[in-house]
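Take a specimen:
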Amino acid sequence: MPLGQPRTLLWRLCLALIAVQLIVAAIATAYAWQSVRSFHHAQTHEQLRRIASFLVGPYAELVAQDDFGELDEVVKREARATGLRISVFLEDGTPVADSHHDP
């Protein structure tokens, strides 16, 4: 028998078992990664939804009045107070206020 090839049935079974364990470990790792990622995505989505519900009322009133200058000032003030970046967009996607940039 050439060098490098398994010599006994036990050695061959050990190699097969190691290969199966590596495949199972890779699948388990991929599943765990996806689960953790999905969990964090859901948590972030829920937090953003709760934060947005607090902001919609005052901002919607300023948007309805077309007072985008005042809205931008309010956004910048609240962003400084909370440490968040706040951006406000119209339904068509037009930015009207941003805490970090000129809209």
Observations:
- The mean pLDDT is 87.
- The chain is about 70% helix and 5% strand.
- The two ends are 75 Å apart (CA to CA).
